[in-house]
User: What shape does this take?
Amino acid sequence: MKSFGYAVESKTSALGPFHFDRREPGPKDVVVAIDYCGICHSDIHQARDEWGGSIYPMVPGHEIVGHVTAVGKDVTKFKVGDLAGVGVTVETCMACENCKAGEEQYCTKGMVGTYNAKDYAGNVTYGGYSDNVVAPEHYVHTISPKLDLAAVAPLLCAGITTYSPLRHWKVGAGKKVGVVGLGGLGHMGLKFAHSFGAHVVQFTTSENKIEDAKKLGADEVVISKDADAMAKHAGSFDFILDCVSAPHDINAYLGMLRLDGALCLVGLPEQPVATSPFALVTNRRSLSGSMIGGMRETQEMLDYCAEKNIVSDIELIGYDRLEEAYARVVKSDVKYRFVLDGKTLKK
Amino acid sequence: MKSFGYAVESKTSALGPFHFDRREPGPKDVVVAIDYCGICHSDIHQARDEWGGSIYPMVPGHEIVGHVTAVGKDVTKFKVGDLAGVGVTVETCMACENCKAGEEQYCTKGMVGTYNAKDYAGNVTYGGYSDNVVAPEHYVHTISPKLDLAAVAPLLCAGITTYSPLRHWKVGAGKKVGVVGLGGLGHMGLKFAHSFGAHVVQFTTSENKIEDAKKLGADEVVISKDADAMAKHAGSFDFILDCVSAPHDINAYLGMLRLDGALCLVGLPEQPVATSPFALVTNRRSLSGSMIGGMRETQEMLDYCAEKNIVSDIELIGYDRLEEAYARVVKSDVKYRFVLDGKTLKK
Assistant: This one.
C-alpha cells in the first residue's frame, strides 16, 4: 500500500519527506487515515538510535488517531468513517500466558512496535508521522467523538503508560501518591491520579511549574531541590509514579514510601539506577517498572477519558516544525505534548 | 544487673571478655539465661563499624536462645525455667501504624536493636554473646523443646529474615522460586521455600555446594557463573529471594522474573545496586527489600519450625573460637551458621 510520511534515514539525519510501501491490508486489518500523531520522547530516542538496534529509514510515531478508510472482511469492530486510534503495539503472539491475560505488552514472543520493528512476517513497521497506518483490529481502539481528537492522540502512549500502573497499584481515595516530573508522561499521571481520588503530590525541579501543577490537579507541589520540603514527606507515600528519564536520585523518593509502598518507573533512564538496599529494606519498599498497557486496558482508559473529559494538554504543530519540536522536547520545553497535524503533511 | 560477655572495644579490636551492667528488669521484663547465640554476618558488620554509627564497647549477638530465670510481676507468657528466644528487636513504640499492624520491625519511631543501640530510656543495649539478656516479654518468644535448642538460635534472625518475605510474597505450591546464595540466610530460605511447596532453584557460585543444596531441598541448582544455565531460566520465576550481601549483578536475576515477578533483597550489599530500568519495565518486575519480621510472625515461624522439624544447620563452637569464626564467616566458610555454646563462656 503506497504511503507517505516523514522519516529519518540514519541516526544523525533530520526528518524529511519519505515515500514508502506498507503491507497490503488483510481480512482482519483496519486502515486508518491519520489525522493527528503525538510526538513521544521515545520517538527521539529511537530516531537517534539511543536505545540501539534502530531500523532505517524510520517513520516514528505511535500516538495515532484518525478515521477508518477501509476494513478487512473479518473486521467487526469498525466501519469506514469511524474514529480510531493506534498506540505502541501492532502485533503480539496472542498465545502466551501474558497475551492470554490481556497483557499483550509483555508478550513473551515479543510485541511488535508500531514503528522501528519487524512484524512476525518480516515486514518493517512504519509509524504515525504519515498519511495512514494498517493494523489488525485487535490493536486498533475506538475513540469517542466527545473529545478533542488532536488531544486524544497522546493518550495512546503517555495516557496508557501512566493509567496502567496507577490502576495496577490501586491508586484511589485515601491514598497518598507522588508524581515525579511534569512532562508528557507526568502531566497525564497527575490528571489520572487526581481523577482517581488520591491525594497527589507533584514533584518538579521547576518553580515555574507550580501553578500549572495545581491547575492540573496537584494537592501539593514540592520542588525536588528543596531538601527541607522533601524531608517533610519521609515515609508517607503509598505510591510514587516516576516519569523522569533523566538521571536522578531514586533513593530520595524511595525514602518517602511508607510500609509496602511502591515506586514505579515509567520514564526510562538510559543508565542503571543506583538503588540503596537499605532504602528498600526499610518499610519493605519496592522499585518497579511498567510499560504501556494491554489492549483491553487501553480501551478502558480511552473510555474513562471520554467519560471524565480527560485529554492531554498539547501544542498542535505542522510537519514543518518537526525538528524544532524534537529540540524542544529534549529541553522539556513543551506543555505538555506536541501533536502533528495531519493536514500539514504535504507530498 | 551484673552481666558478663564478649565485647569489642573499637572497630579494630578483637572480641574479649567484658563485665558490664544491664538495666534492672521491670514488671514486664523477662530475664533469659543464654544457652546459645548464633553469629550473624551483621554482628561482624557492626563490630567493625562497616555500617557506621557503632557504639563501643559492643556485645554483639541477636540470635539468642536460653531459659527464663526471672519474670516481672506483669509477665503472663513465661515462667522461670521456660525456654525462650530473643531476636533482633527489644523495643518499639507500639503506637505507630506499623507497630499496630504487627510489623514492629518497621516502627516509625525506630526499633531498638538487641545490641549496638540505645533504648528509648537511653540505656545502651548489649547482645547475646553473654550470660543473660533482659527484654520485655513482647520481644521474647516461646521455644518448643522438640527442637535442638542450639540449632534454633539462628531462626531468630536468619530464620525470620527469610520466612517473612517468602510468606509476604505468598510463596507456595505452583510457584517457581529462586534463592540466591547458600549461606546462613540462603540455606534457611531454601528450607522454607521447599517446605512451603514451591519449585525451588538454588543459585550459587560454588560447584561444591550443589549436593548440599539438593539435600536441603533444592529442585534445581544453577551455578550463577554459567551463562547458558542462567539463560534457560529467563522470564520464568515468580519470586527470587536474594541472600547475597557481596556485590553482584542484580539485573541477571531481574531478567529471570516473569510477569509481576518480584526479587527481594535480604542480604545487604553496602554499595548501591545498579538496577536496569529496562529490566524492571519488562514484565512489570519489582526489586524489593525485607527486614526480619514482626513479633507475631516470628512466633509463627518458630511454631512452624517446631511443627515441621526445621532448624538451622550449624557449627557449634566455644567462645575461644570467636575470632576464627568471624574470619570464616567473612570467607563464607561455614555450613551454615556458627552458634556459640553458652557453657564455654568463662569469667
Remarks:
- The interface with chain B takes residues 97-98, 101, 103, 106, 108, 165, 168, 235, 251, 259, 262, 265-269, 272-291 of chain A (CB under 8 Å).
- Chain A has a mean pLDDT of 97.
- Chain A has two domains: 2-156+313-344, 159-289.
- The domain at 2-156+313-344 of chain A is CATH 3.90.180.10 (Quinone Oxidoreductase; Chain A, domain 1).
